[in-house]
Amino acid sequence: MSNNNNTDTAKLLKQALKELKKSKDSVQRLEKEKHEPIAVIGLGCRLPGGANSPERLWELLENGEDAIVDMVDQRWVGDDFYDPDPEAIGKLYTKANGLVDDVDQFDAEFFGIAPVEATLMEPQQRLLLETTWDSLEHAGIAPDSLMGTKTGVYVGICHMGYSHMQAQYGSLEDISPYNGTGNSHSVASGRLSYLLGLQGPSMSVDTACSSSLVAIHLAVQSLRKGESDLALAAGVNLILEPTTSMIFARAGMLSPDGRCKTFDGDANGYVRGEGCGTVVLKRLSDALRDGDNVLAVVRGSAVNQDGKSQGITAPNELAQEKVLRAALEDARLKPEEVSYIEAHGTGTPLGDPIELAALNTVYGKERSDKLVVGSIKTNMGHLEAAAGVAGFIKLVLSIHNQTIPKHLHYSTPNPYINWSNIAIEVPTEQRQWQAPVRIGGLSSFGFSGTNCHILVEQAPIPSDINDEKPATQFAPELLTISAKTKDALQAYLQNYADALAMPSLQGQDWNDVCFTAATGRNHFRHRATILAGSAQDAADKLNGLLKNGDATGIQINDVGTNTAKIAFMFTGQGAQFAGMGQDLYARFPVFKNALDKVAELMSDELDQPLLSIMWGDNTALLDETQYTQPAIFALQYALTQLWTSLGVQAACVTGHSIGEYAAAVYSGVMSVEDAVKMICARGRLMASECERGAMAAVFASAEETRNVIETLDSVIDIAAV
Fold it and tell me: pTM above 0.85?
């Protein structure tokens, strides 16, 4: 009796320890997910000064360029509304603005939008479409590969200038349903999800000047919660008509001399700016798994509100301190680990001292080096709803390039700031970012009182990554380029010729360049393929074609509008062989991840590890039915994931015997989890309950074969024709 009790107690203790371990693992997993770093893998922008790409923006910042211009006739006739008297009714005391190029241009056909709808579409929506497409290509993601995925869209947007213009200059007869979809802020985000077929959360955010940084914060939260597997966070702002500027001028917010002199003694307001930026975000663990180019990592973020302050638009120093501390806590960082802050820094006499005081209170204690603080607003003005994403892209580029750009228009320190007693300095010249780990913060404060702070860290260096990145070579020495029209392809070929000659691109692995061009872009009707051994070789061949008509090594094709339809056929039992899929597993991360997923699902169903059966120590079992069928299904599932990642999609599927299960999963009839359970159970039952038999392939007609079978004294039948 005593021995039985001891045995029962031991079993109970063992079970209790097992449950405790499961609970501990669950808590650790939840804690990890709550604070998981988020990778920045793609950037797109249209910003003042012709900064229409991350590369051009970095050039602007490195050169210390001032992108502010006078309003001549880009949006309205500047002289018609200019009066230096701040009290003049219906006038503006400044002409200065940060403007983007070609805001009236849009390729509606490219995005499948009818001309009548495009005309009534808010230009802010057009910019969002363009920069989002650019950001996905920058990330090496083919936009059409995101159809049906859990990709979230978060857009910061606040002004409705185009709607005001339609109301002012249009008539009642001009009203169309497209006025609604074309101007609604909710459609700004919804249109992106609709265009790309995204099925994650989609929302537009208006917290005034902090809108786009709050959008990034929400995207980070969505990824951590698992609502999204990929997130697009954006901000957009356009200056289309003068009345909004008049409102800010009447409030005394605008600088009369047309420059943001952030932290300077002559600071007297801000300059309005416009633009659009989109960032592509992904959980760091997923980005490393998928071999993405990680530019930087979001460590943490926080949002709060000023609450009751001296006025609804007045900043609240204590509230700013709280949001800084909350972001540090979310990031699990100490204040002294942060070496740079991209400030809100609008250049107002009230806002600048309050912001620096809050920064010093939170970040200025126990530092060995001073905190460096700058602002992109000195380069291009205050982009309002897009200010946060503009500052975010600058911060990511600064971290990535290990350089802190020069802060412009700073000569006489603001006398309302006690510079001798704060651990803060302003970078009057460009400098190397020297820190053990480059970590920067970014603030955006909305004039409605909503504050946001985000902390960004350098990307993991290769030595920090435990798992070796699998090779992803697919189409070495074959560069693919495509466009929707002949003229667009011609322009694109010139763009490629220019880009391929750049030293920065020639320093990249040529196989990686070809791989991304093949798999990270949509492929359109008009196509060019260039056989080349290097970036310079490809540039030379393209220039030969463009300048001399020499098409050596280049194929130009028009594939037409009717894309060839592809069918997938999934085989039944009998096609297995030891080592099947092993080379693909070593070469392609997508194939490896898919096979690993199925192997993990089958670990509870099989008594031997799946991979050991396919090419390991247990390949002798591969011809046993209970192992054959799961192995074939796993290979077929992984193959479909690989083909899909390469842009190959089936129009129809068919399968024989167990191949029907992989076909059903591909077509969405059943989940891979359900298929795994059914396949493994099917294999076990057939192995244990069915008599052993044999199959043979006969290269003859069914009638001929049946005639032969009838002459044999055996139980043979035709299984399939």
Answer: no
